[in-house]
Amino acid sequence: MPIAQRRGMKIAYEVVGDGPPLVLHPGMFQTGAQWTKAGYTSVLAVTHTVITVDPLGLGASSAPVTPADYSLARRAESVTAVLDDLGLDEAAFWGYSLGALTGYAVAVHAPDRLTRLVAGAFDPINGFRSAVEAMLDDLGLPPDTDPWPLMQQGARTNPAYAAVIDAVGPEALRANYESFRHEPGVHESLERSPVPLLMYAGTADPWHEPMRAFATRTGTPFASIPEADHVQAWRSTAEVLAHAHPFLTRGQFWPELNG
Predict the structure, then answer these.
(1) CA atoms of 175 and 63, how far apart (whole Å)
(2) Structural contact between residues 81 and 5, judged by C-beta atoms closer than 8 angstroms
(3) Which of 155, 176, 196, 255 could form a disulfide with 116 if both were Cys (CB 3.0 to 4.6 A apart)?
(4) Sign of the four-CA dihedral 38, 42, 48, 49
(5) Range 199-223 average pLDDT
């Protein structure tokens, strides 16, 4: 895999396709290859040069053990490092879950590097804590319960995610988590960003309503994936592409997706 570097950190990525550049950034417990396995990359590579990124802390990228290395500014730098390595001034960006938070970070810290942003399933208002509160409430657990073991346990039910977890030291995973769990909502800064934005989430995802509230307040396009929770919306590849692809191609709807 090609490797970009910034501040001594290595960011691994892969490139496929031809056309305007598009960065795909996955969520927690995922690597860039998950976009391909889920069926997104092959579709998008028809119209874009697709750049799938291993997030900082996962896959073939560096895995620092200090939470500060996973700050929003550092997450943004990991993306701009890849663009610099490829000699690109700017690119479109699509992130899901923690990848969407990374997209928000780039839109806030380096808006001139993005042509547009697709953000799936991450609350820009209250950040990660809104999902934690919903999870603990559903499980009937006290609000001061540490959700990290529960998150890992849930992720391990997917063999691909379990492999990602096992390949990274527990200190790095915990540092990554401790960083994003404490990040405040970025909605005020994101609202001022000039980057065109499309947001989406499953209607059964606890982040659906705060995302829709932000989209309504700011006039941002927003797509609901009916009856899908956080995982199911990720797996709803064709339905999500039907919303995202026209946005990424400036309104040119792909006939195959409209079937």
Answers:
(1) 9
(2) yes
(3) 196
(4) positive
(5) 95
Query: CA dihedral defined by 233, 51, 148, 144, rounded to 10 degrees?
Result: -70
Is residue 52 within 8 A of residue 124, CB to CB? The reply is no
- Both tokens assigned to 256: 């195959």
Compute CA 206 distance to the chain's CA centroid, rounded to the nearest angstrom. 16
Q: How many residues does the chain have?
A: 259
Q: Taking a C-beta distance cutoff of 8 angstroms, is the pair 185, 126 a contact? A: yes
At 106, phi and psi to the nearest 5? -65, -40
Q: List, in order, residues 6 or more apart from 7 with CB less than 8 Å away.
A: 74, 77
How many CB atoms sit inside 10 A of residue 135's CB?
17
Distance between CA atoms of 42 and 216, rounded to whole angstroms?
32
SS (H, E, C) the chain: CCEEEECCEEEEEEEEECCCEEEEECCCCCCCHHHHHCCHHHHHCCCCEEEEECCCCCCCCCCCCCHHHHCHHHHHHHHHHHHHHCCCCCEEEEEECHHHHHHHHHHHHCHHHEEEEEEECCCCCCCCHHHHHHHHHHHCCCCCCCCHHHHHHHHCCCHHHHHHHHCCCHHHHHHHHHHHHHCCCCHHHHHHCCCCEEEEEECCCCCHHHHHHHHHHHCCCEEEECCCCHHHHHHCHHHHHHHHHHHHCCCCCCHHHHC
CB atoms within 10 A of CB 253: 11
- Pair of tokens at residue 87: 């000699």
Q: What would the pLDDT profile of 210-219 be if each residue is shown by its tens digit?
A: 999 999 999 9
Amino acid at site 149: P
Task: Please name which of 45, 39, 44, 38 lies closest in space to residue 18, comparing C-alpha atoms.
Answer: 45
